[in-house]
Amino acid sequence: MNRIREAAAHFALRDDSPLVDAGRYNPHLGSEDFLGTHPGANGTLTADEPTDGSPATRWAAAEDAAYPVTLDIGFGTDTTFDQVSLDEYTDSGTNPRVRTFALQRWDTGTGTWVTFASRDTGIGHDLTVTGFGGVTTSLLRVAPTGKIATEQYTPTTTEIAVYDG
User: Which parts of the sequence are annotated with region: Disordered (predicted)?
Assistant: First the structure.
């Protein structure tokens, strides 16, 4: 194995390469690249990424996740909004994946999730969902409920934001 790694080292990525951690994470292949130098996406596509204000980071559902997939966002306090902005991650090898989704608020009185908006036209890039009036909640759930028929992978999202007014 050492001789194989020595030979492969000639093809190693530089630390500043845009290809570092740019591939799809597959948990069945381990948590490091072949040379043992880059940890891959394992642990970096977490649920806090789409709310960090950076389009360079993202969340991804586990590759074996079943629809509906849910992503819950806690505001820490009741927050009122009338717009939800969503953005799916895409690149030259990643197409939009979500066909249908629901936006839900947590109802503390009943202890249940209540759908306040849903769409069957996908998320794609820079979707702003409006028309549901003002919602006040401490928790927002983004729930992709179905995938585009030609896609096999689960959702991956770069940004989720709420706005009032």
Answer: 34-55
Quick: pLDDT tens for 87-112.
999 887 889 999 999 999 999 999 99
Cβ atoms of 31 and 38 within 8 Å: the answer is no
In 8-111 the beta strands, taken as DSSP E runs, fall at 59-60, 71-81, 83-88, 98-107
Is residue 6 packed enough to be buried (19+ CB in 10 Å), middle (13-18) or exposed (0-12)?
A: exposed
The sign of the torsion formed by the CA atoms of 12, 95, 129, 139 equals: negative
What are the CA-CA distances from residue 6 to residues 35, 38, 55, 109 (Å)?
Answer: 9, 16, 36, 62
Report the sign of the C-alpha dihedral through residues 114, 44, 162, 78, in that order. Answer: positive
Q: What is the pTM of this model?
A: 0.73
Residue 10 identity: H
The β-bridge relationship of strands 112-119 and 71-81 is unpaired
CA distance 82 to 131: 8
